[in-house]
Design goal:
The complex is a heterodimer of chains A (158) and B (292).
Chain A lengths: L3 H8 L14 H23 L5 E5 L5 E10 L2 E10 L35 H7 L6 H23 L2
Chain B lengths: L14 H12 L15 H13 L11 E3 L4 H14 L3 E6 L5 E7 L13 E3 L19 H20 L7 E5 L7 E2 L10 H16 L46 E3 L23 H9 L2
Parallel strand pairs in B: 1-2
Antiparallel strand pairs in B: 2-3, 3-5, 4-7, 5-6
Helix pairs in contact in B: 2-3
Chain lengths: 158, 292
């Protein structure tokens, strides 16, 4: 399970109400609004905690998302592009975040740059459908992955 | 699945392309139609559903059976969503992360449990996990286990299509002890998938309309009288920290458990912050995010 610090951060991310996927038309728009509100709040929290580590935006339909994330290690700031599609079974299944620049550089990644999340993530997500949204995916998925993989990659000189 | 047909000289081809070549060499009389895309995206899903409903032996007719041989939860859920919506019978198959157990499942929307009716079933491993899991590696793979699962899957397909023997609704395979649990699961009336619930209603109506003597119970629970191997039900779930955060475990026969449980929906003991509706439009919110 995630450590104390992550749990605290996640508890401050607003949870979502609408259980709707990209095929649900009006309800999806409602869900998108909730996603954005939750994300905005999360980014605000991050800025206040001096830990502003990502930006995300989407296409008009909200089905394709892209952005950047940063990781600071030894006083150096590393920046990566990130992207993902919303699967039609969202929010029952979480999107797969991809970091294309790191494709092929680590074992914890599928072909195409999709990050490999731990055993804990999927059951945790499933237990919290539909309350978890993209902000939670970032906090519980991408965040810990960066924290685990980047120092390792730096050390290997990749 | 690709361990079963991919050959070294096919390096560089997509899995479906290599599969077609290998299979065509085995039996040139079979008709193939291949598509290489991610079915979970909105664009591709529509095409996927279209091929299920129109790609039968005669173009325009639905297929008779769908076999799922994918390797991840998301793709299975997607197939489940499509089949529930189309009322399409399908068989799901899979091999565990540690490669020493697998299963097949027959899903008739409305009649048997769909993939979303219950959390993913896991054939209890009953082995010391530490002997298998290696640090830093996510998954193991044994083409032998996959061969066995592929064999029982096709066997079940033959029985289903040619109407002989007993078609298993669920058949598990525990390679470590050579244990093959079977069972059938009724659909969940509170399934998260709206179409599953709808299919259940339709099925009930169909059953009620049948003359009484035609309804034959085909589900039989297999009870193992002598447990000479001392097979125990070991829960694979490691998230069960708090009792009240776990949900009900479905009634399952020996050797099968759920990968995790979903807690009951009502009480929220932990105070959570919910998104408030600030009244801003979607465009406003998108712009706000961009300007941060």
């Amino acid at each position: 399970m995630a450590d104390e610090a992550t749990r605290r951060v996640v508890s401050e991310i607003p949870v979502l109400k609408t259980n709707a996927g990209p095929r649900d038309r009006e309800l999806w728009v409602q869900r998108l609004k909730e996603e954005y509100q939750s994300l905005i709040r999360y980014v605000e929290n991050n800025k206040n905690a001096d830990n502003d580590w990502f930006r995300l935006e989407s296409n008009k339909e909200g089905t394709r998302w892209f952005g950047k994330c940063w990781y600071i290690h030894d006083l150096l700031k590393y920046e990566f592009d990130i992207e993902f599609d919303i699967p039609i079974t969202y929010p029952t299944t979480a999107p797969e975040i991809a970091v294309p620049e790191l494709d092929g550089k680590t074992a914890k990644m599928y072909r195409g740059g999709k990050i490999c999340l731990t055993d804990h993530f999927k059951p945790l997500w499933a237990r919290n459908v539909p309350k978890f949204g993209l902000a939670h995916l970032m906090a519980l998925g991408l965040g810990p992955w960066l924290a685990g993989e980047i120092p390792d990659l730096i050390q290997k000189g990749v | 699945m690709n361990r079963l047909f991919f050959q070294p000289h096919q390096a560089g081809l997509s899995k479906v392309q290599a599969a077609e070549y290998t299979l065509r060499n085995i039996n040139p009389d079979v008709l193939f139609e291949i598509h290489n895309y991610n079915i979970t995206t909105v664009e591709n899903f529509q095409h996927f559903m279209d091929r299920i409903s129109n790609g039968g032996l005669e173009e325009g007719k639905p297929v008779d059976l769908v076999l799922s041989c994918v390797d991840n939860f998301e793709a299975r859920m997607t197939i489940n969503t499509a089949c529930n919506e189309l009322g399409q019978t399908w068989m799901e198959s899979g091999v565990s992360e540690n490669a020493v157990s697998g299963h097949i499942q027959l899903i008739i929307p409305g009649e048997s449990a769909c993939f979303a009716c219950a959390p993913p079933l896991v054939v209890a491993a009953n082995i010391d996990e530490k002997t298998l899991k290696r640090e830093g590696v996510c998954a193991a793979s044994l083409p032998t286990t996959m061969g066995v699962v592929a064999g029982i899957l096709v066997q079940n397909v033959l029985k289903f299509l040619l109407n002989f023997g007993t078609v298993s609704f669920y058949l598990g395979y525990n390679a470590m002890q050579d244990f093959f649990p079977t069972m059938s699961m009724k659909p969940n009336p509170q399934c998260d998938d709206r179409n599953c619930r709808k299919q259940q209603e339709e099925h009930k109506k169909k059953v009620a309309a049948l003359p009484k003597h035609e309804v034959a119970p085909e589900e039989e629970e297999i009870i193992h009288e002598d447990n000479e191997w001392g097979i125990e039900l070991v829960s694979e779930v490691s998230e069960e920290e708090l009792k009240n955060s776990s949900g009900p475990v479905p009634d399952l026969p020996e050797g099968i458990t759920v990968a995790y449980t979903i807690p009951k929906k009502q009480e929220d003991s932990v105070a959570e912050v919910t998104v408030e509706d600030s009244g801003e439009s979607l465009e406003d919110l998108m712009a706000k995010m961009k300007n941060m």
